[in-house]
Design a protein that fits this description.
Largest sheet: none
Number of strands: 0
Shape: rod-shaped
Radius of gyration: 25 Å
Structural class: mainly alpha
C-alpha cells in the first residue's frame, strides 16, 4: 500500500513531467476512457439480458403452439 509520502512524490513527478496545464486534459481523457469502458460493459450485459428474454419468449411461444 502506498503511503502519504509516496503519493506526494508521484504527484510531484507527474506535475514536473506534464505541467499544470496538461493535467486537466489528461484527466478528462482518462474519464472519457473509463466512461466508455463502463458503457461497453453495461451494453454487453444489457445485450445478454435481451437475448435471454428473446430466447425465453421464443421457448414459451413454442411450448404454447405445441400444446394447441
Amino acid at each position: 500500500m502506498l503511503g502519504t509520502w509516496e503519493i506526494i512524490l508521484i504527484v510531484l513527478v507527474i506535475l514536473l513531467i506534464f505541467g499544470g496545464k496538461k493535467i486537466p486534459e489528461l484527466m478528462r481523457g482518462l474519464g472519457k476512457g473509463v466512461k466508455s469502458f463502463k458503457d461497453g460493459v453495461n451494453g454487453k450485459e444489457e445485450e445478454k439480458e435481451e437475448q435471454e428474454k428473446q430466447s425465453n419468449s421464443e421457448q414459451s411461444e413454442r411450448s404454447n403452439s405445441g400444446t394447441v
